[in-house]
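Design review, sub-item: ligand-bound model
Attendees: FS, YL, KQ
YL presented the inputs for the flavin-adenine dinucleotide complex:
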Amino acid sequence: MRSHAATLSGAIPCADSIDDDSHVNEMGVQCCRRNASAVPCRQQKRNGTVSAGRASAKRENLEALFVIIRSAHTCRVIPTNVACKNSLGTTEFPETRHSNIRRFQNDFLFRQPTHLRLKFSHDLARRILRSPIVWRTTGGGCMNAFASRHAIIIGGGASGVLLAYQLLQRSTPDFRITLIEKRPEIGRGLAYHTGNPEHVLNVRVANMSALPDDPDHFWRWLTSREGVPPPCPDPYCFVPRHIYGDYIASLLMMSKGRSLHRLSIVQGTCVDVSDERSEVVVTLDDGRCYVGDIAVLATGHDIRSCSLGYVDPWLPPSAAGVDPEATVLILGTGLTMVDYIQSLVHDGHRGPIVAMSRRGLLTKPHRRVDPIRIQETEVPFGAGISRLLRWLRGRVDAHVAGGGDWRSVIDGLRPYTQRLWRELPPASKRRFLEHARAWWDVHRHRMAPEVEERITHALYDGRLTLEAAKVAGIEPNEFGARVRYRRRGQSEILSMQVGAIVDCTGIVKDPLASANPAVRSLFDRGLARVDPLHIGIETSADCAIVNYGGVPSRRLFAVGPITRAAFWEIIAIPDIRNQCAELAAKLAHVSEASLADLIAERPS
Ligand SMILES: Cc1cc2nc3c(=O)[nH]c(=O)nc-3n(C[C@H](O)[C@H](O)[C@H](O)COP(=O)(O)OP(=O)(O)OC[C@H]3O[C@@H](n4cnc5c(N)ncnc54)[C@H](O)[C@@H]3O)c2cc1C
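KQ shared the predicted structure:
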């Protein structure tokens, strides 16, 4: 595993080992300077004094550090050393005095993560804590103490990057951010990793700025790339998604001043998140762990793991071994299906393509129209779903009768959709999901006109057939599979022979079915719960994750599509960018007083 080049060596607040360069983290031991003092940093700096605990350490010329012993370590106190051992090796803390380990017996086995408060000479403490951030902020020491303002973002797709950027912009120099991403690149995630140039944005460039207070930011970036001509004459266009991935990935480099040194990007898969009363601990699949004050889940869409015998929709068909002459059955007729058809065409597929879903609805195309202005007072907030849809239909009919386009009304509603969802009675939410969601989705999440052209072409020349039908059975055979299905409104069972089946039903809708270990760990620990409609993890209006007992966390937050239970319309960038900016404003301004509270909570 490696850190990304954009970082300062993937710096984390935890130390290299003392006597050699093997990484303490690999053994599950972390050393962090945790000032036991509750005196705010600036105050310490100004008057040069420290709290009683710290002062006594000063008198003895010692520095108090917290050493976090992860599970399954045996530690032993030898007169001036503490040695902690697990199957991966031993970490020795030499010249250690005044350890609270003396409370324990020698050879104590720590089964749970445990804080040891150890005191070291200043020199040694510095060596333990040697990381770029600590070195840069030494010179009084108090900045180090407050380097504990540390946010860990799990997931480096668009949401994670947008949040990291906003935190860097808004927070003070003592605030550090660690961004953990399992893919080799940040900023791409599921949507923007595609290399197929025909996979274009579903939202026009004009609306894809990453920054809510600078709507032209993406357009300016797009048109000012050195040596690359602008891909379109104006921002009402749809560019390849991989270009957007480049934009998001480069966003962090645009952070103001020298703030980038406060960011560490770590490649790895988060498998566990725990809330240890006074801090969060995030563990990766290789055993590395990160300690912070706050963790934010930005794990995005949960994709269905590919069932046996099905083709992976996120791989190019040629790479997945799809026979170019075979009949391909695509399950689902949404935007993932639209992408896959383009992938088939791109890879020179010649066989028939059948796309099947219960209603057989095809995503509507964009048109060059602007949203209408809808007054907040006319929106029936809090009304049941039937009244709400009647009102919307009436608004659309009136606009169309006046020569307008229905899209202008749907887009005009956008500033209110999150509030509409929040205030929709629970029974109406359920009815909406069961009966109206599919229609809403095809009108709301539209495809680019050039994509519509390709799909229409494939339909007209007979290569693509849309079926409103339900699969009744699949029998694998030597040529692929025989699929039995029933058309919508009919009882007769039909069958067809196909060479490949691609599941494009997309995203896992129920988070309880998530295979993501970070999400699972939150459920397993009771730190999160699924919302009553099973569409997301439950979060408060300010993105705090709600635990099993219904209490919003002070340390665990979430952004992006995983928060759709609270926000519903939180799938696309125009909504995610607002959410990230608002959450960053809140997290970056955690007051020093509340920080002092957090620090005071730590065991001494
Ligand atoms: C095919 C497709 C096309 C889209 N097109 C558009 C569009 O044109 N315009 C638009 O506005 N929106 C579009 N969207 C919506 C899109 O979801 C958002 O724009 C945005 O990309 C969501 O970003 P995210 O970071 O929340 O989620 P994701 O993109 O899913 O990213 C989550 C990241 O977290 C990482 N991760 C997950 N779990 C872990 C873990 N345990 N440990 C470490 N890392 C982890 C993943 O590797 C991933 O990189 C599209 C969505 C899809 C699926």
